[in-house]
Amino acid sequence: MRNGRNQLSRSWLAQHGFAYVLLLMIIAVLALGASSALQLGAQAGRRDAERALLSIGAEFERALYGYAGVAVVATAANTSGALASRGPRSLEDLLKDPRVPGVRRHLRQLYVDPMTGRPEWGVLRDPAGFIVGVYSLAEGQPIKRLGFDARHAHFEEAPSYAKWVFGLPMAQLQTMRGTGQPDTPSTIKP
Predict the structure, then answer these.
(1) Using one digit for the tens of pLDDT, what is the confidence trace for 134-149?
(2) What CA–CA distance (Å, rounded) separates 119 from 106?
(3) Do the strands 166-167 and 186-187 form a parallel or antiparallel pair, or are they unpaired?
(4) Cα–Cα distance between 19 and 184 in angstroms, integer?
């Protein structure tokens, strides 16, 4: 009887060892699947943030054009008369234009950078110190590399988000030539 009991317990132990290895393999496969799902989720979140950046950047660009009195149809290729226009001294001037009596708003609010989640934007200034462009301070290479509209064709193959400059034609020309001097980040007080 004792001999039969030993054989039974040995086969039971062998089955438990196999079940344990199988359980470890299942856990490894689940961990690998969860890791892939997290990576895909992070990439989808970054794509959404890029779309928000393009939308907010277009708002900043419209506000800078409105402040400078330049028609939005002007582009980097068609700059006749547009380069003489001036942007604001600070981003807050887009909320309430200090040059006119009363309240004239070019922008409803100063947005938070969707790529960093911080209320800071990089600003590009002309030689006189006026803001001509706004860009994200996010590090890294953009996911979107192609398929921009004509106004933002210079964003294609940009090596970083800092090259996505939204602004007046002067800012776009400076960015394309690489002569733009980034200013210190502009902090927005919420």
Answers:
(1) 999 999 889 888 888 8
(2) 19
(3) unpaired
(4) 61
